[in-house]
Amino acid sequence: MDRPQGNIANSSGTVLEQNVVSTFKAKGFEVVKYSFWEKNKNKYGGELILKNVPFESIYGHKAYTEFLLKSKKYNLEIRIECKWQQSPGSVDEKLPYLYLNCVESMLENHIIIIIDGGGYKEGALKWIKESARTRKYQNSNMKNIQIMNIVEFMTWANNNF
């Protein structure tokens, strides 16, 4: 049975996000929806992965990121964005928007963008990696924006936790 491209992208993106969740659960992090945590922060421990984390976009609208890692033990706060592109599509065109949101709108100084699926245009992936590496459009905030695929992310997590 053929599934529409949007359904494939959504289910594959969910699988990518589940990989992130299982990686952090294996490292002892508690996974909590941001809206629950925000209402009762004292109820939760210091090693958290918050899901569906809001921020105000460069357009002034409410937007959401998949995850925010908060660790008292490692003194870290890292926003994590997941993008899956299995076949050519419009997500390529969203990468500059995502990058500018990282630079201008997301409050955290460390941001990880996990990009996988093999369907990105070579130029799009090259652009965002080069932009992050050279800190394009960054003035004084000089954020650490890392671009990884899922294997690189899992290796990073294994090396850091």
UniProtKB/TrEMBL annotation:
Record gene name: orf159
Pfam families in the record: PDDEXK_11
Domain PD-(D/E)XK nuclease: from-to ranges: 9-161
Sorted UniProt keywords: Chloroplast, Plastid
Record-given protein name: PD-(D/E)XK nuclease domain-containing protein
Key word Plastid present: yes
Keyword flag Plastid: yes
